Amino acid sequence: MAKESTLRFGAQTDEVTSLLRIVNMVRAGDAATRPEIGRVTGLGRGVVTQRVDQAIEMGYLEDGEFGPSSGGRAPRTLRFRSGRGRIVVCALGALHIHVGVAMLEGDILEQSHRAWDIARGPAETLDTALAMIDEVLARTPDVPVWGVSVGIPGPVDFHSGRPVAPPIMPGWNGFDIRRRFEERYEAPVWVDNDVNLLALNERSRRRDESLDLIYCKVGSGIGAGLLSQGRIHRGANGAAGDIGHVRVAGSDALCRCGKIGCLEAVAGGWALVRDAEVAVADGAAGVLAARTREGEPLTPEAIARAAENGDALAISLIQQCARVVGESIAALVNMFNPGTIVIGGAVVGAGEVFLAEVRQRVYELSLPLATRDLAIVQSQNDLREPLRGGAEMVREQLFDATFPRWFADGRPTTAAIHPAG
């Protein structure tokens, strides 16, 4: 296209800037008609018409139904063509693989889930995940994949997409996860810590683009995703929020990372199971202990459910865990001053038994100003949370972070977003 070819250049002109803005306004629902675009942007009617025509010609927008009239001819609405591409999401957990596919508006169309031990290594794990994704893709519209999100339960260098010394992922250190997905789907790929995806899901669910929030996940391990004014705070190298390996004063528990006294080694899901096993072996009474002796698996989820149902051993374990976690969260509250803390992971099943203890420690140890408007709530505990968060990350990276690099091509390319070298 002649108009499209004029947009393939180095510098971003005013024409391109306004075109990108208009596409994103329609995509985000900030404007739905040409007159609305003119009012929001201050552009003249002729310029708006020209830019909208360009966006339609390039395949980003399309005309919709007629909108309400304000006295004259009813304006025709505009729609973002979200059906042009698919988003693939792969959420790897310590003990599961969860994959899904969304269109460009971010809603998960299809998903698949299976139990899996991530310690089986990257080759076998990714082979399994890719096969699951292919099965899910086959159940969705046959349009190109525009982006892929991969969440993992460990530290990630976000720039390279490679795990960095992940404690519960033997064999994954430095592994090029991005390459496997790029080769399969010929689309840009982003790899991030799984808790960051959960934080992004909260932003999407609350529809708050200026959210200050901490998502704290207490599952097999412990981690936190930090949202500052709606943006994930990853830090200089992607390690922000990794509170699971903060030292707990007075603890000599050996952590899976090889260090002593880490928060995860004191209060993580595997530490809960370890302490429960010791208590049962020492003759603890109650429903949880009895069922464990009868052969039922002892898991963090089982302990959380037993605590909610009033089991004394489970309650004591959950409260001890919550006190220590609350102390670490209080430090984050003093430094970060969030408006909301969301607690997720295996402990969510304990409900208020866990939350009440966390709230007490946070309010005891944090500055009054930092807790004045603070809400501490539990997550929805929805299986699709990491999938929706992964789709949200891809949408953010495509349309907020990298759109100028690839929009003239009509769809994102790996070369434009992750250039070699």
UniProtKB/TrEMBL annotation:
Pfam families in UniProt: ROK
Protein name (Swiss-Prot/TrEMBL): Sugar kinase of the NBD/HSP70 family, may contain an N-terminal HTH domain
Originating species: Microbacterium pygmaeum
Keywords recorded for this protein, A-Z: Kinase, Transferase
Alphabetical list of InterPro entries matching this protein: ATPase_NBD, ROK, ROK_cs, WH-like_DNA-bd_sf, WH_DNA-bd_sf
Taxonomic path: Bacteria, Bacillati, Actinomycetota, Actinomycetes, Micrococcales
Protein family (similarity comment): Belongs to the ROK (NagC/XylR) family.
PANTHER family given in the database record: GLUCOKINASE, ROK (REPRESSOR, ORF, KINASE) FAMILY
Coiled-coil boundaries: none
Domain of life: Bacteria
